[in-house]
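Appendix B, example 12.
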Amino acid sequence: MNIEINDIIEIVKQASLIMRKNNFNISHKEGYSNIVTDCDIEVQKFLCAELMKLCPDCGFLCEEEDMQNPQQKEYIWIIDPIDGTANFARGIPECCISVALKHKGEIAMGVVYNPYKEELYHAVKGQGSYMNGKKLSVSDRVFEDGMLCTAMSLYNKQYAKICSDIIYEVYNSCNDIRRFGACAVELCYLAAGTCDLYFEYRIQPWDYSAAYLILKEAGGILTGMNGSKLNFDSPTMLIGANNRKNLERLIEIINRHIENVG
């Protein structure tokens, strides 16, 4: 299959024009915490239609409208039309379009684009990762100087106490914490060396798949619970760091508070 990263980038940039219309309606999927805008739906429909032209026999795993048909497909598009919808809906510019291409179980290409900050991150497996053409590399900060990006399990608030206990312990050992409200954005910040640690209790594959490759190609590490390999097809705990030593220390802290994922 001859799919070029520049073709994906161009489609994502075109889709971002839909995000910037500033004219949308908001509805709730599962209470006030989980919202969707008609922009999310429109962006996803555009992406699916255009990406299908690049790969007519691809499967899709997307966030909105149950666009999920990845079974027995060699190539699968994993799409979050707007990661950080709550930010987007409130005019907070920490949001992005995230598109990954999975091939035989591995992420082969990833594009994350924040049109409001004009930051376009991309990676091709084995070829490094870039932001606006500049090669990315994770930081070399030690844990004590590290900054943690995290969240409080917004869609599963029964885990909030566990998350807060973990965050509190990490906070007392690292430099500081940040909560930007968009997983793909935060993982790209980790890839760029802006932050250094990442933890989220339960996250969907469309939130992290593209940024996973961007982080990996920048020298970082992203795993599931207890350092397990990610499979990109189901909800998971997400643990990331700029290096193996910091990852292992973060896992030790998490494991003190969690026995298994509910």
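DSSP finds seven helices and 14 strands in the chain. The chain has a mean pLDDT of 92.
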